[in-house]
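Narrative of activities, Objective 1.

The group set out to show that a structural description can be obtained from nothing but a protein's sequence at a throughput compatible with the screening campaign. Below is one input-output pair from the validation batch, recorded exactly as produced.
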Amino acid sequence: MSILDNFRDWKEFLGDRVEQARQAGMESQTLENVAYQIGGYLAEQVDPKNDQERLLKQLWDAGDQQQQQALASLMVKLVQNPDSLNKGN
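Output recorded for this entry:
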């Protein structure tokens, strides 16, 4: 089972990576830029595995660069909030 198959697993995985980057001294803006680059890669190269990922891809595809950067920033904030990891699938 891939981490992309279950959205909760994906959020936990992403949250762990964000925390590791923070502990390594990566600044918030750099983290958000990396999240934006990863979001672009995922949108172009990875087929969504569940409804949440399909929605994120549709939002990504509908947005311009500024909106995509905002979505990436929101994903970083989502996984930095431990309570958000316990909600949803």
